[in-house]
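thread: overnight batch results

M.L. [08:02]
morning all. the overnight job finished for the chain we discussed friday. pasting input first so we're all looking at the same thing
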Amino acid sequence: MNSNGLILYKLIILYMLDRVDFPLTNARLSQFIIDRGYTTYFNLQEAIHQLVDDGFITSTMIRNTSRYQSTPEGREALAFFENKLSEGIKQDILNFFSEEKINLKNEVELMADYYPTPRGEYTVICAINDRGDTVLELKMNVTSKDQAIAICDAWPEKSTTTYQYLLKNLWFEESDS
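M.L. [08:03]
and the structure it wrote out:
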């Protein structure tokens, strides 16, 4: 891979991360860049790896899913080199975000993960976030990894009704009693 190609892929990643106010998953970056034929999976991963190593983006891992955000250094680099991205690529990115807006937001606003405890059980954490603020966070212990996985898998579909149920049953006014 030539260095100009790698620079282009890095700029695309930085531009994408700069246009959203939440982290993007590796899968979403790949979906855009690979599906549109900009590069291969391995070139994309190399670009991501170098951006992380150079401090231009940060990476967090949630339930085997990498999520990336731009750093101040990444935003500064983008501001300096953004003119190297064609208007066509920029518009392609904006169209992608427009088409995928709901799916992208749900990936970030809803979080579910689990980890083993010293007693051989599993702690499950489910959360709803809104613009960086935690709206709801549930933390519970379950006895098996299968239960933990099932809860995490169900969270995207059941988070809204769970939140509404908790509000209804925990928040009551005196006129209701």
